[in-house]
Specification:
It is a single chain. α4 (about 60-75) packs antiparallel against α13 (about 275-305) and α7 (about 135-145) packs across α15 (about 340-355). About 50% of the residues lie in helices and about 15% in strands. The chain is built from 15 helices and 11 strands. The protein has a 5-stranded mixed beta sheet with strand order 2-1-3-10-4, sandwiched between helices. A 4-stranded mixed beta sheet has the order 8-5-9-11. The chain folds into 2 domains: about 5-170 and about 260-295, D-Maltodextrin-Binding Protein, domain 2, CATH 3.40.190; about 175-255 and about 300-340, D-Maltodextrin-Binding Protein, domain 2, CATH 3.40.190. It is an alpha/beta fold.
Amino acid sequence: MNKWGDVMASSLRVKPFSMAIALLLCALLAGGTGAAVARAAAAKRVSMAYNGPADPEKNAVHLFAATFREYVENRTGSRIQIVLYPDSQLGNEDERMELVSDGLLQINVASYAGIAPIMPELFAASIPFLFDSYAAAHKFFDEGEYWRKIQALFQKRTGSILLEAVEEGEFLAFTNSKRELKSPEDFAGLKFRAMDSSQVALYKSFGASGAPIPWTEVYMALQTGVADGQMNPPMYIIIGSLYEVQKYMTLANIQYSDQFLVVNGDWFNSLSKQDQDIVRRAAHEANIITRADVEARGDERVKFIASRGVKVYDPTVAEMNQFRQTGQPSYIAWLKGQIGKEWIDMAMSDAAWANREVKK
């Protein structure tokens, strides 16, 4: 069986982890009282899981989830009620995607680590230095052909529905504990934490090494020297207190920082057309609110990191071009071994169009 067959076959089995979470969700949602059961019967009470703390100032994904819940509940008159599970309470990335596939979790916000094993074509949207601005990234995901085709393929492949690319933080920045990074040559010999294989490929293009390390282990890896550096948006550098174990940060605008709103297809299709439209609109409008908040807090977060002793460097235009000219071709060469060239061409074309359009 090919790897996509393995993915689909796994959705037909209720694994021990899924069963344990199913029992937990039943207990939590029912609340153990007749009144709670009655309320659940009168409304469609569903669960939404994601990473990070339940703090809208520190975690943009929580701001998105809380806004999305408010919009959905208000506009459906509480026909749909959403229970939030932040901080990966319902499992890590792979486990939560498994729960969605098995129909035990209705709504999940997944990072690339959770969704790319199922949908590697999404790596084309994280080609380094693809977007010149937030506005260009928004246009790419809101209006581009690539994103529409990704959504259609994801639903065909998994049965689940990919609603939004949720802005989760500022553009990614490099940090490390050894030296300032002003050019690709400065990466030589450094060891970096990677979120996934795509980041490993980027580090290699700069002459560094990369190894996948789970987010929950990043602080310790940096503290003990297992890794010298990592890349994340400033928001995650603050959430993880990484400024305590890093000395330098380069604002290289490497990649747009997003996660993905995934909903179980059977649940979504069980809704009336009216409620489906409400859920779709709520997801997009919550994303617009989140985008504005992320971008308004960007400078503030960088200043906070600098105030904790991290030396922040903002590359010149010439230095940014050098990063792009070195990193992008190597990443694309790696990506051609993972997905069809048509996805890369489509993403590059849409990004170029979006970059032009927002400058008009």
